[in-house]
Amino acid sequence: MYRTSDGEDIFIIDAHIALWDGSPENQLNRHGEEFISCFYDYHKNLSPEEKLWPYDKFRKFNTEDLVKDVLINGYVDMAIFQPVALTDFYKNGFGDIELNARLAKKYPGRFIGNGTFDPRDGDGGLDYLEYLKQTHDIQGVKLYTAEWRGESKGYKLSSKGAKRYLEKCIELDIKNIHVHKGPTITPLNRDAFDVADIDDAASCYPELNFIVEHCGLPRLEDFCWIATQEKNVYAGLSVVMPFIHTRPRYFAEIISELLYWLDEDRILFGSDYAIWEPGWLIEKFMAFELPEDIKQETGADLTRAVKKKILSENAARLYGIDIEKQKSKFRNEKLAVR
C-alpha cells in the first residue's frame, strides 16, 4: 500500500504487468530481437536514469525480480498479468500463462492471471479459451490485434472470427477484454493497433468491458470519441504513466482529456512492468497536480479521491475485488521473495 503524508493507506491494483522471456535462447527469428529491443527503447527513453535496467536483465528477468519490484518495493497490493503470446517470434511464446498461474498460487490473493486468444486459431483456440477458464478461472484476456500469424499481420475485433471468441467469452463469463491499442512495436504494423474496431465490438457486446490499454496512443482523440459513447470502454494508463516523468505537461493533457470524456470511473492504473517499475510511477502520480489552465479548460481535477479510483477502485469493480477485505488481509502480511 502507498501511505500518504497524513497517514492514509491507499490500496494499489496494478492492472497491467507482464513476465516475459525475450532472451536470445527463446527467440525464433530476428523479429524476436526486434520486438524486445523496441520494448527496451521505450524503457530507456521514458525512465529515470536511476531506474534503467541492463539489457540482458530486461530481456529475461525472474519471478523474484517481479515480486520485489512490484509487491515489495512498488507499493502494489494486487497485480494483473496481461500475457502476450507472439508465437511467431518466440519458441515458447513471449509470455507464459502457466508460469503466471504458478506465481499467483505461490502468493495467494496478490496476482490475477489473465488469458489470451487469437481468432485466427479457429476451433482449437476456442477449446484453449475454455481450458483457461476451467483450469485457471480467468476473468479477462489480453489481446494483441497486430500479432502475426503466418502471412497474416493482424486482425480486427469487428471480424466474424473475433466475434466468435467474444461470444465465447460471454458464455464462459470472461468479462474483461484488455486490448493493446497503442504505440506500435517493431516489427508489428501500426495500423493493426488502430482503435476503430473497438467501437463495433463495444456496441455489439455491452456485456463485456473493453479496457483499451495505452488508451489508443497516439490516437487519443479517436479513442475518446469512441469511449464517450460506449460506456463499456475503459482507458488503461500503461505507457501513459511514464510521461509524468519525461513530459509532465503532455501527461497532464492526456489525463485531463480522459477525465473530460470518460470521467474518473473508467480509467485504470497500469505500470506496464517490466518496461517500468510501479514504485516511481505511483510516487510521481500521487504528487502530481494538473496545471491551472488545463483544469479551467477541461474542468478536470486530480483530487485524492480521483487518484484512488484510478489506482485501484475502478479495477476492483471490474474484477470483483473487495478492497477493505483485502486491506485487512494484507495489512500484517510480510512479503518475501521465495
Describe the structure.
By secondary structure, the chain is of the alpha/beta class. It is 43% helix and 11% strand. It has 14 helices and ten strands. It has helices at 30-46, 55-59, 63-72, 97-106, 122-136, 160-172, 196-204, 220-227, 243-246, 248-261, 278-287, 292-298, 304-319, 323-330; strands at 2-3, 9-10, 13-17, 78-81, 111-113, 140-143, 176-180, 209-213, 233-236, 267-268. The strands form three sheets. A five-stranded parallel sheet has the order 6-7-8-9-10. A three-stranded parallel sheet has the order 3-4-5. It is globular and about 55 Å long.
Biggest β-sheet strands, sense, barrel = 5 strands, parallel
Distance between the termini: 20 Å
Give the proportion of residues in helices.
40-55%
Number of strands: 10
Q: Identify the quaternary structure here.
A: single chain
Strand and helix map with partners:
Elements: E1 2-3, E2 9-10, E3 13-17, H1 30-46, H2 55-59, H3 63-72, E4 78-81, H4 97-106, E5 111-113, H5 122-136, E6 140-143, H6 160-172, E7 176-180, H7 196-204, E8 209-213, H8 220-227, E9 233-236, H9 243-246, H10 248-261, E10 267-268, H11 278-287, H12 292-298, H13 304-319, H14 323-330
Parallel strand pairs: 3-4, 4-5, 6-7, 7-8, 8-9, 9-10
Antiparallel strand pairs: 1-2
Helix pairs in contact: 5-6, 8-10
